[in-house]
Amino acid sequence: MKHLLSMKDLQKTDIQTILNRALEFQQLASADLTKQYTVANLFFEPSTRTKMSFEMAERKLGLNVLSFEAGTSSTLKGETLYDTVKTLEAIGVDAVVIRHEQDGFYEELLAGVNVAIINGGDGSGQHPTQCLLDLYTIQQEFGKFEGLQIAIVGDIAHSRVAKSNAEALTRLGAHVTFLCPPEWQGDYEAVNTWDDLLPTADVIMLLRVQHERHDSTTHFTKESYHETYGLTKQRYEELKPTAIIMHPAPVNRDVEISDELVESEKSRIFKQMHNGVFVRMAILESVLKGRS
Amino acid sequence: MKHLLSMKDLQKTDIQTILNRALEFQQLASADLTKQYTVANLFFEPSTRTKMSFEMAERKLGLNVLSFEAGTSSTLKGETLYDTVKTLEAIGVDAVVIRHEQDGFYEELLAGVNVAIINGGDGSGQHPTQCLLDLYTIQQEFGKFEGLQIAIVGDIAHSRVAKSNAEALTRLGAHVTFLCPPEWQGDYEAVNTWDDLLPTADVIMLLRVQHERHDSTTHFTKESYHETYGLTKQRYEELKPTAIIMHPAPVNRDVEISDELVESEKSRIFKQMHNGVFVRMAILESVLKGRS
Amino acid sequence: MKHLLSMKDLQKTDIQTILNRALEFQQLASADLTKQYTVANLFFEPSTRTKMSFEMAERKLGLNVLSFEAGTSSTLKGETLYDTVKTLEAIGVDAVVIRHEQDGFYEELLAGVNVAIINGGDGSGQHPTQCLLDLYTIQQEFGKFEGLQIAIVGDIAHSRVAKSNAEALTRLGAHVTFLCPPEWQGDYEAVNTWDDLLPTADVIMLLRVQHERHDSTTHFTKESYHETYGLTKQRYEELKPTAIIMHPAPVNRDVEISDELVESEKSRIFKQMHNGVFVRMAILESVLKGRS
Predict the structure, then answer these.
(1) How many helices (H) and strands (E) does chain B have?
(2) Which of A205, B36, C13, C61 is found 20 to 30 A from C131 (Cα to Cα)?
(3) ipTM above 0.90, yes or no
C-alpha cells in the first residue's frame, strides 16, 4: 500500500490484510521494518484521540516521530500544504499523517510528493483509519460482517466517519441503515425512528454532533436532539442482547448518548480507541514497507 | 504509591522514601522498571519549569512520552478532562501528569480511570511535586527539618506552593511563619514585617505574585510590593549566614526579590529546578511501580 | 565551537570544518559524542523548515530532544528569555536552538548562561545555520566559492539570510551583487535590473518577501513585484546553463519566483532543505563537543 487516502481505494482483501496484521500487533508481534523511518503528524484540526493514537502506534513501531505543530509552523506565513509536505520530504520524512479541514486535501499532493500519505480525516470527506478500527472492532465482536445489521445514527451528511463506514460495511456484506434529522440526511435514505432499528440492530454507530461544522440555523437543542435521536436508557433496554454501541468520540454526553451509557456493558467506545492503536500500526507498517 | 495528588496523602515515611530515592537518582541510579511505560503530560496552564522538568525526568527514566498539547486537543471541541484521560488510558498510557486551573480537578477522575495521576498543580490547590523538591532542597542543605525556621513570604492565599509546603514542613517538625499583605493572608496567621523574620529564618521561601490570578483591585505597584514584601539587598544582608532563599519561579525580578539577588550566594532558586528532575524521577517511578 | 551566533564569529577554516563534517554526515558518518546530551528548540517565531530540520538533525545524532513550546510556556507569565534558558540549564539541557524576533537576543544570555546557544534566526539580524547550508549547497555544486558570481535578489534590508550570506560569501572569495527595490536596499549597493545579472550569475539567491515584517506602506502588489524583481520563465531562460537558483523558503509562488520554476532543473530549493539536516548535525555536534 503506497498511501491510505480513502476506503474506496481498498479492496476487500486489502482490508482483511490490515485487520489481520492489526490482530498480530495486538498479540504483541514486532514491526517488520528494516530501517529507521521518520514520520510527522500534521493535524490542522483539533484532535486528541487520532493524534495520540497515531503517536502511540508510531512509538510502538519504533519510528522516529517529528513534532510538527501546525499552529507554530510556516503555514502561518502562508505556506501551502504542498510546500509543507515537500519540505518534510526534503528533510527526510518518510510518511505524513494529515488531518485537514479541506475535503480531498491530498489530491494536490499526489502528483508531486514522494512521501507516504495517511489521511487522518479530510473535512467532511473520509476518515479511513477510523473506519478500519471500527471494522476491526466489529470483526472482533462478531467474527464476520456478512449479514450484520448496522445502524448509523446522527449527522450523516457532515460525517466523514459515516461515509467511510457505510461504503465499506456494505461492500463487506453488512446491511446499513441510517437514522438522522432530515436536514442532515444528505444523499442517504433514512428510516424515521429508533423503533425501526432497535429490534434488529447488531451495531449502533452513533455519530458526533459536530457543533463546529454547523451554522446557527440548526433548530435542535441538546435536549431535543437527545430525545429524538439520542441513545437513551429506555432505547438501550430494547437492544438485542448481543448488540454493541460504537461512537468515534469525542462524545457529547447526554446528546448522542445518555451519560450513564458511555461506559455501559454494550458500549465499545473506549474499546474502539484501544483497537485503533493496533490498526494504525498495521497501516503505518504497510505504507512504509510500500516505499522500499 | 498509586497517585500523587496532594501532600496530605503522604505519610512522613512516604516523603522520606521519595527524598531518598531522588538522592539515588542524583547519584546516577538507574530506573527500577520492568516494562516500557508510556506517560502523557497534560498542561492546561502555561508552564516551562514543571513541564520541562517532568519531561526530562521521564526521558531519564526511559519512558515513552506522548506529546499531548491542550491547545490543539479535543478539549477545544468540549471534551471533558475525564474523557480525555479515559482516551489516553484506552490507547495505552500508564500515567498522566496534569496541571489544571480547577482546584481538585482529580476528584472527578479517581472513580473511573485506571491510569496513575500526578498532580502538576491544581488551581489554587496543591502542587505536591514542587513541595517535594523544596523539601529535598532543604534536606540537602540542612540534613533535617526538625526545628528549622521557615518563613513563607507573599501571596499565601492564592499559592498552591504555600499550602503544600506549610502543611508538610509543619508535619516534619519545622516551624513555619508567614509574611504577606493582609488581603492575601487567607486563613493563615501572619507576622507584620520582615524584621520579625530576618534574625531567625533558616529558609526564606518567596512566593510568586501571580498577576494572572488577581483582579484589578490589588492596590500594589511593583515598586511598593518590593519595598514592603520583597527581599531587598538590605534585608539580604541581615539574614543569618547559613540562611537560604527559595522561590518556585518564574521570578518577578525586583518584585519578590531584587534582580541582583536571584543568583546570589544564598539563593537556591536554580538549584531547586535542578533538584526537581530527580524528585520527579522518584515520583514517576513510584506511581508506575504501583501499577504492577 | 562554544556557540553559533553569527557568521562573523566564524573564521574561514571554521566554516570549512563544518562543511566537511556535514559531508561526512551525508555519507552516513555516526556522531562522535560520548554522552547522552539534551537539547531544546525554542522557536518564538513560526517555523517549519528550520525547526523540523534541527529536530531531524538532533534525532539523527541520538540526542534527547525536549519539546519546548513557546506558546504554552511561562514566557506567557512574563518570564524573560534569560530566565527561561537558565531554567533549561538547571534541569540539565546542554544546548538550545533559539529563534527570536529580537535582533541579537543572545547578547543578554552570554554572560550568565552555561548552555551552548545556536542562533536559529534573530529578528532582522543573522541566520547562520541557513547561511552554512547555503554555502554547503554552493560548494556541492561548484566545488569552490572563489570567483563565483552570486546575485542576491529581494528584500535585502530586512533579510537575516542576505546579511549572513553576503558577508560570508565575500569573505570566501565570491563576488556578490544585489538587486532589490530601492526601499529595501538598506546600506547595500544594488544594480538596477535583472539584465545586469542574468548573463554572468552562477547563483541566484532569491529572498522571501516577508509580509509579516512590512507595514502597509509597501507599494508593491504581488504581480508588480513579480514583474520587476521576480524570477520569471523568461529570465530563467537567459541564465547560464550551469547557474542554480536558491531560496531560503517558504517561497511565495509567483512573487519571488514563478510557480513552475520552484521545482525546475536549476532550482536547488528543496536540495537546500535536504542539505540543512547534515549541516545542522555538524553544528550541533561541534557545540556539544565544545562543552567537554
Answers:
(1) 9, 8
(2) C61
(3) yes
